[in-house]
Amino acid sequence: MKHLPIIALDFPSGQEALAFLEPFEGTPLFVKVGMELFYQEGPAILDALKEKDCRIFLDLKLHDIPTTVQKAMNRLAALGVDLVNVHAAGGKKMMHAAVEGLESGTPAGQSRPGIIAVTQLTSTSEDMMNKELLIDRPLQETVLHYGQLAYESGLDGVVCSVHESKVLHEHISPSFLTVTPGIRLPNDQTDDQKRVATPAFAKEQGVSQIVVGRSITKAENPKEAYHQILKEWE
Ligand code: C5P
């Protein structure tokens, strides 16, 4: 079975996130806690989600000097989440330090959380990257380069768009995780995302794991939307 789609719990409070999950009672879920929810609720929200048997991707996208990231990862490792991430733009030393911090902080007898690197945000277009960030290369080339740096630094995979997953698997390793946000059902709004794709196309591209937020959380019937995505995905 493929990995479950990850539901992005982009809610301003734990109360709203947990109320959203109520109709899913009894369904095994993999959820993503991002900055908004974590900064509001702290580690308590992770405990509440674990009580519901959710697997958790803690999406805090660390990006700082290597020592700071190492120490922060040491602390995150103790929270008992399944997946964490950093920005690949922090460079190899920082990513390597992140893995070390995670390993040193993982409690004895537990396996260390997976760690992936954000390549280019799925809200970034090539035009914006070239003209605003002055990175004068094709977007796919920078994603592949960041992916290679992440692989050489000992990370388990990357966050990328569906459109880059195949090239990453071909050039790096088929087992290198590609976790892809920017997922939309055919009639959904793209919102602020630029490089979007459907779950079916993600599957076709060999994506390892999809992340879906608003297509589920803003749907009229979130449970139905989730199952539609799951069906396309599996
Ligand atoms: O609502 P939507 O499906 O666009 O949500 C996507 C989620 O994935 C958001 O929580 C966003 O922060 C996250 N994400 C992303 N692009 C990345 C990394 C994370 O959209 N490169």
TrEMBL record:
**Catalysed conversion reaction:** orotidine 5'-phosphate + H(+) = UMP + CO2
- Give the first-level EC class, as a single word: lyase
Q: What is the lineage of its organism?
A: Bacteria, Bacillati, Bacillota, Bacilli, Bacillales
Q: How does it assemble?
A: Homodimer.
The record's annotation in PROSITE patterns points to: OMPDECASE (PS00156)
Q: What is this protein called?
A: Orotidine 5'-phosphate decarboxylase
Domain Orotidine 5'-phosphate decarboxylase: where? 4-229
EC number(s): the record gives 4.1.1.23
